[in-house]
């Protein structure tokens, strides 16, 4: 999702205020849910005038979008750490399946990821919420292929990566919505099978 932040504060005091706005928004999210987040509620929670929020954010959606990016980066960071521990050359299917399960568990256990992802999916087009080239997910797919020892055909690498990242992003979102672990597990297995055959 592209950043829509109005101002990137450079001074320590301004950065501290922006961080405080984000922290108070997280407090509202944890306590009252995503629908309770408004610029007025955030200002009240932070003890600052509403106008101060607009120095750093366009609107409530801008703040929530940033929170979603932070949550997403947390989950992807967990997967990246798992990837670093993996044995190279064990094949794409095994490597990929293990990483999807790490992603799924990290996303399900994260305190805000699921709610923020639902919000992002409901308020943006598929294009806006699908990670693109040079995203964290794109980089993870590249690293997974490298660890698995898979080389993509020359001339098709970029489009194959884009297809894989889009497919992975959409299907993982569906797996996250499954409350039945067995159903989620079956969907993860299908995601792995689909991409394994795609990269054969």
TrEMBL record:
GO terms for molecular function: DNA-binding transcription factor activity; transcription cis-regulatory region binding. It holds the Pfam family TetR_C_15. The keyword Phosphoprotein does not apply. Keywords: DNA-binding, Transcription, Transcription regulation. Residues 15-75 form the HTH tetR-type domain. Residues 38-57 bind DNA. The keyword Nucleus does not apply. It comes from the Bacteria. This is Transcriptional regulator, TetR family.
């Amino acid at each position: 999702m592209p950043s829509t932040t109005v101002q990137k504060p450079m001074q320590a005091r301004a950065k501290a205020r922006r961080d405080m706005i984000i922290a108070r928004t997280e407090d509202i999210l944890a306590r009252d849910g995503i629908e309770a987040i408004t610029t007025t509620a955030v200002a009240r929670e932070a003890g600052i005038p509403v106008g101060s929020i607009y120095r750093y954010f366009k609107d409530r959606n801008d703040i929530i979008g940033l929170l979603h990016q932070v949550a997403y980066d947390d989950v992807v960071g967990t997967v990246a750490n798992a990837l670093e521990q993996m044995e190279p050359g064990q094949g794409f299917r095994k490597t990929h399946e293990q990483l999807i399960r790490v992603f799924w568990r990290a996303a399900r256990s994260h305190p805000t990821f699921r709610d923020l992802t639902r919000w992002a999916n409901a308020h943006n087009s598929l294009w806006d919420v699908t990670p693109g080239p040079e995203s964290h997910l794109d980089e993870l797919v590249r690293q997974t292929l490298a660890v698995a020892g898979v080389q993509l055909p020359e001339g098709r690498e970029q489009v194959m990566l884009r297809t894989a990242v889009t497919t992975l992003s959409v299907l993982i979102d569906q797996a996250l919505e499954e409350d039945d672990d067995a159903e989620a597990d079956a969907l993860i297995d299908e995601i792995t099978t689909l991409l394994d055959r795609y990269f054969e």
